[in-house]
Amino acid sequence: MKIEMDMYQQIRKRYLNGESQRSIAKSLGISRQSVKKYCDGSAHPEKRKEYNRSPVKVTKEVEDFIIGCLKSDEEDNIKKQKHTAKRIYERLVDEKEFTGGESTIRNAVKKLRAEQLVPPQSNVPLSYEPGEAIQIDWGEATAYLDDKKRKLYTFCARLCYSCDIFVQVFRAANEQAFLEAQQRMFDFFGGVPRRVIFDNAKVAVKEGFGTYAKPQDKYFSFSAHYAFELEFCNPGKGNEKGLVENLVGYSRRNFLVPLPRVSSIEELNQKLLEDCLKYREKHHIKGRSNAVNVMYQEEKQFLNPIPPYRFDTSKTKIVSVDDYSTACYERNYYSVPTKYLRKDVTVKGYGNDIQIFYQNEEIATHIRNYYSGKTEYKLEHYIDLIERKPRSVFNAKPVKQNVTEELLIWGKQLPGGNREMVKLLRLCLDYGEEYILSIKEAIPGHIVPTVDMIRAHLSKPVDTPVLNLNKEIAVEEVDLNKYDKKYGMVVQ
């Protein structure tokens, strides 16, 4: 009979208290053999005897048949139509007159399938020649831009020979950022590797995957210009570019912790470039004979030169400037100087910036907005118009979007009203708002500062340095007879 845990407890306690096995068995109504088995604690009711039945021996002929089924599945490569252990057993019975049990075949299939399978985590040690290849990838990070928490995308690259690194951040991981990042990467390394290894992301691949991937048209054009081969990884195979996969996490933990607090994405990218240079100078990868800097200097000599023509990585559109002096680009609006009203301009969208041209001349630049329905104004584009229409100054969107609340409050207190405010805005454009406000704060508190007072501080006379001279200057006497003798003069 099965001994339950409460009965086992009584057997152990009563035996330890000196009661005989016969008495315990009689009082509990169990056999003396059960009491003998459990009384001294050498066995436990929950322990089950291992099943040691020897299965039917699988012959070499049966093993070959199973391996043939598995290889047939691999060649056909149809995931939903593969041999199961049950199906292999049925075929063995029908085709080979197998007389053993199904469990025997199940165990044999499990064993042989494991022997045929290469573990997915296994990696082949790789070696690269100088300048042969570079691995690139995207990651994500968070930073404070102008005190606002932003999600950013990190572009990471690593040379396969020297393991030198390159990291930059972008507002989006789109095609323009992707191409611009690689262009900056070539500039940073001082040359172009012969192969670029990337995953199967849509930003680079139009269709297919791995060796069958077809690149996006613009990326193919970009690679043709910089003369590198495209190599795409298989989907979900991060181990195929393990060098840069490690860099994504390393850069986030070491370059972006604590969360950076910067005024602009350009400032953050400059910091990242400095971090990459420090890595190059100081890092030594375990298992390598030389430091990163030594190997990079060697690899640099084997990189292909950067072509003289700079590939245009932007997405370009020609649009007409509307009556509010803004140009629409991908559902957002960007201001231009009012003199280009109703003219056709060329808008170039890069990863982080917008550049606007008129007849090949750059007329405006903006931070690229990835929201929808937003308008970016620059005060300098509207100041001439506001000077002609001063009554609009306090309601003008370019003013509200670009100046601080402190400056607006001061402007409303000026005795000259709207016109004085316009003059104040002009000074802010010429000298910077922060500097103008610092002059205002320097004026005594009981005086209401005016624009004229500000101008007076801007035109302070330059202090002329004063030279302190002694009242008496010692002069040594000169014997002029020496000159008379030298030039043959008669000495009287």
UniProtKB/TrEMBL annotation:
Q: Tell me which residues make up the Integrase catalytic domain.
A: 126-299
By its UniProt entry, which SUPFAM superfamilies does this protein fall under?
Homeodomain-like, Ribonuclease H-like
Q: Name one GO biological process term.
A: DNA integration
- GO molecular-function terms, A-Z: DNA binding; DNA strand exchange activity
**Origin superkingdom:** Bacteria
Q: Which Pfam families does the UniProt entry name for this protein?
A: HTH_7, Mu-transpos_C_2
InterPro entries membership: Homeodomain-like_sf, Integrase_cat-core, IstA-like_C, Resolvase_HTH_dom, RNaseH-like_sf, RNaseH_sf
The family note in this entry says: Belongs to the transposase IS21/IS408/IS1162 family.
This chain belongs to the protein called: IS21 family transposase
Species of origin: Proteinivorax hydrogeniformans
The gene that this protein is the product of is istA
